[in-house]
Amino acid sequence: MTAFVxxxxxxxxxxxxxxxxxxxxxxxxxxxxxxxxxxxxxxxxWILALVGGLAIVALVFAAIAFRRLWLFGDRGGKLAAxxxxxxxxxxxxxxxxxxxxxxxxxxxxxxxxxxxxxxxxILGQGRTVRMNPIDPLTVSEAEQQIAxxxxxxxxxxxxxxxxxxxxxxxxxxxxxxxxxxxPAGSLETGELTLEATASSLVFGFVSDIAIRVTDEGETSYVxxxxxxxxxxxxLGSNALRINSFLNDLDGEVASRAGGQAPG
Length: 263
Hints:
The protein is α+β, with helices and mostly antiparallel strands and 263 residues long. It has helices spanning 11-35, 41-72, 77-103, 139-148, 161-175, 237-256, and strands at residues 109-111, 155-157, 178-179, 184-186, 191-199, 206-215, 220-228. The protein is elongated and about 80 Å long.
């Protein structure tokens, strides 16, 4: 007489699958809530830490389920496989961010002028204690920025300051960056600084922007600063934001000033 042994179903696979699906839902809901201002950024950082931790736990239980499947022939391979895929999907942004953190220096304030960065007049007044302070750049920070982002430099245009300002306003509108009040200074004194806020595409992390236009007589010079409101490491985003904006500004000014390239 042939005996058949019933295959047990490991609880580890079911738990890993449930935990991974819950973690993915938490990640999506929290991300959207932060993107639309329903969760403060410091609180969102704690939720992200929880999401990452739960994804690792789900992977551990999936590994236990695979081990029991191999040793005892338990059922649950499909659940464990799905849990593994979901957990790895959730961890992918963390792994990508970790790679950026290792590649770039831990900076959160980037400026084209390291000696005299554009100042935050309006946005500096509304800063809370939980936000990154607006401090002068240290020598170490300046050296790290130069080494990591040598292309972050100001622009000189053979165009009148008012033409450059119109181009900047057009660029701000095109990117959806929000202007903060009226510009500080005036073209009559030779220098004017516009302030705005920019949000990252996916999670909506906010950075404060200051763009200074200096009248040099026959030319205009533009400096730009981007400061993350939260976090000690911007993962290179502020430098990328400045380079992207100024590169596009080159073309915008050229089209408005009769095709003259920046100096």
